[in-house]
Design brief:
It is a single chain. Helix content is about 85%, strand content about 0%. Helix 1 packs antiparallel against helix 2 (about 40-80) and helix 2 packs antiparallel against helix 3. The chain is built from 4 helices and no strands. By secondary structure, it is mostly helical. The chain is elongated, with a radius of gyration of 23 Å. The protein starts with a helix and ends with a helix. The chain has one domain (about 1-135). It has helices at about 1-30, 40-80, 90-115, 125-135.
Length: about 140
Amino acid sequence: MLTAIAALIGSLATRLARLVDRARKLEELLDNPPVKHEEDVHAELLRLRKRGRVVNASMVLLTLAATLIAATVMALFLSDTISTESRLLVPWTFLAGVLCFVFALLFFLFETLLAARSLNFGKRHRRALKQRQSDAEN
């Protein structure tokens, strides 16, 4: 499970880096006027911020999951070597770790859906084409 958590953290870190790079590029664009479609740039920055928050929340949950799984391993070790009372922690730390992992996966799914929803697939170009056609008719 720790390997899966580490792999997912790596994947999320890459996604977060891409979000940051894209946001920096858009902010540089805004710093050098004139900017075509400035409202679209601001809207994309808001979407990137939201996605970044979801990625960060997922990473927090994954880190917490890894910590709880590690606590489970330590409790198992301690219960076999020092005290059997620490065995009482095992189901709680493990279940909490799995629960954090599941929520992190749900956040990852949510962020992926947000990313897919933000794809334009030429929407801006279609809008400009419609505007030109409308102007030509008038």
